[in-house]
Amino acid sequence: MATAGYFRTSAHIDLNALEENYRSIAALVGPGVTLLPVIKADAYGHGAVRAGLRLQSIGAGYLAVASIDEAMELRKNGVSCPILVLSGVMPWEDVRIFVENDVTPTVIGFDSLERTAAHKSPKPLKIHVKIDTGMGRLGFSLGDLGTLLEQLRRMEERIKVEGLMSHFASSELRDDYGTGQVDAFRGALESFRNAGIEPRFVHMANSAAICDYPEAHFTMVRPGIMLYGSYPDKSLRGMVRLKQVMRWTSAVSYVRTLPALSSLSYGRTHVTQRETRVAYVPLGYADGFPRSLSNRGSVLIRGKRCRIMGTVCMEWVLADVTGVADVAPGEEVVIIGASGQETITADEIADLAGTIPYEILCGVSRRVPRLYG
User: Fold this and answer.
1) Is pLDDT above 70 for 217?
2) Residue 227: closest CA among 58, 5, 2
3) Neighbours of 75 (CB within 10 A)
4) pLDDT averaged over every residue in the chain
5) Which domains does the chain have, with CATH numbers?
6) Catalytic residues
7) Cα end-to-end distance, the chain, whole Å
8) How much of the chain, in percent, has pLDDT values that exceed 70?
9) Cβ(308)–Cβ(294) below 8 Å
10) How many CB atoms lie within 10 A of CB 319?
């Protein structure tokens, strides 16, 4: 099958699969829990604007991004639902942009709280307060709760605590450390309630914790990698049915038949042991295909797994098509997705590359066009 279009490689984004994943996660957590889809990093490489618009259209009441720049891209392109900026107001940013565009900042420390409360708006700005229960990254320490609650009470005319949140250090496998974090967060929530502050949204669970820590669902959860069809850990595969949202393809550029003992690509890391038909695919690490898959990974051509031979180049990979009859220039090459009865997932590539599917999906270069369907 010839690949469509004029692109050397392209990522086909199935928004229907994104919607199905969203609904599967919603069914898992139940009707009393709000989903906060995380669409930071350009929706993990899938395109934040199109993902945000689709999620908004099916009822997502809130979206999460990493920065005010990401929030503004959504606002400028028609996303009107509430947006939470996970990093809050940075030292070099003006809180007015949050106020003027109805964007909710996360407050991650006392400096962050002062910057956020410095606005001149006549009405309080909604905030989510982050508590560090053991991640050791962002958030107020448990020992700061007394001082924090005093300051929040003094600032109640300028800020409104809409949400209270925390983050797991390692939620892929349930353990005592994780349950300890949940207990610590519950204690922080109780302190807020005793101080007369009742957050509407209480959230701690990311994708893995949605599966592993049902007691941490509270009133909101933050699905990220699950939305896009990948699992945060091998152990969680199958706990919820997900569909891969991205189908990444390229095409055969040309085919050569090389004799035995021919060396291939940089460093001569592969030498043919027999006469070999080689398909040359205009795909490389500049597109986000990991160089660590040299002599290890595969692509799909005509429903067959074709092993990568030699070093992955910036612009090229070489695939062994000796066992695939009549492969010709223009043939579709599947990098992520299905072909015939075979499928390659981002999870599989991550396993081979020694990384996580987040990095694979986020790493698909911006020069790879996203085509939506």
Assistant:
1) yes
2) 58
3) 18
4) 95
5) 15-235 (3.20.20.10), 246-344 (2.40.37.10)
6) 40, 266
7) 19
8) 98
9) yes
10) 27
